[in-house]
Specification:
Helix 6 runs parallel beside helix 7. By secondary structure, the chain is an alpha/beta fold. The longest helix has 16 residues. 29% of the residues lie in helices and 27% in strands. The strands form three sheets. A six-stranded mixed beta sheet has the order 6-7-8-3-9-10, with helices on both faces. A four-stranded antiparallel beta sheet has the order 2-1-4-5, with helices on one face.
């Protein structure tokens, strides 16, 4: 069976600077992944390459067995849902949540057409899936950050993606809202019809049990990837974040302690 996503020897270079350097990565069906890395590690560039907005200098990207560059990128892009701060900032203040979700079918921001009865029914279905049916008529401007993230996930699901990328979805959430949102992700990823989830973050506290695999990046290179139990280790995280760290695991959740620098590091 072909993987959902496969990247081979991906290199992206701009102005003589290597942004991604020999990245290879394989995402199998029924896996949910976390991409970890510090700022500048290459996470955003990798996402841009996956969604067809940044052309590789070298390497191959394959989605559902179809290769970017050989197949229609516009069609392949529809198979990848993206929830990010850039999308969140483009939403129209007066647009009701139901229309925001429905607009995902047409990949349109600030939907101006008339929704069909079928579109409304489908949008309501996905609002229910993201546990926000009660927000259907509520305009974007009055939604909380956590509610906005859930509505945007519903919007992505409207296009029936095979992969759903969540780019730092907890940024800006207070501790309680973040935990509620993470519990929601756990429920979403556990659903039988859930797309493959890819969570991009630099906080191990956001890694819920539903995420089975981890990819760690540093300076555009892969430090480690594979099963969470094998990859989520103090040694890899200390390298990724250039510090003395200690990973702590309690009841299938994680946290990091930052240790004082040793005298040799002063």
């Amino acid at each position: 069976m072909k993987p959902i996503l496969e990247i081979s020897n991906l290199r992206i270079e701009r102005g003589g600077i290597k942004i991604l350097d020999g990245v290879s990565w394989r995402v199998e069906r029924r896996q949910h992944w976390v991409i970890l890395g510090a700022n500048g590690s290459g996470k955003t560039s990798l996402l841009s390459a996956l969604t067809g907005y940044l052309m590789p200098t070298e390497g191959v990207i394959s989605l559902l067995g179809k290769i970017y560059g050989e197949s229609d990128w516009r069609e392949l892009r529809k198979k990848i849902g993206l929830v990010s701060s850039s999308v969140r900032q483009m939403m129209a203040d007066d647009e009701p949540a139901l229309e925001t979700v429905a607009s995902g079918k047409y990949a349109m921001i600030d939907f101006w057409g008339r929704l069909s009865r079928t579109d409304k029914a489908k949008a309501l279905k996905f609002l229910k899936q993201v546990e926000c049916a009660h927000l259907a008529e509520r305009p974007w401007r009055v939604l909380s950050q956590g509610e906005r993230q859930r509505v945007l996930i519903g919007r992505s699901l409207m296009a029936k993606p095979r992969v759903l990328i969540l780019d730092e979805p907890c940024a800006g959430l207070d501790p309680a809202a973040r935990e509620h949102f993470l519990q929601f992700l756990q429920r979403l990823g556990s659903q039988k019809n859930s797309p493959t989830l890819i969570l991009v973050t630099h906080h191990v506290e956001e890694i819920m049990p539903v995420f089975s695999q981890v990819l760690i990046l540093k300076s555009g290179k892969v430090i480690a990837d594979g099963k969470k139990s094998a990859v989520l280790k103090t040694k890899f995280l200390s390298t990724a974040f250039s510090g003395r760290l200690r990973l702590i695991k309690m009841k299938n959740r994680y946290s990091l302690n930052v240790l004082p620098k040793s005298k040799g590091m002063m």
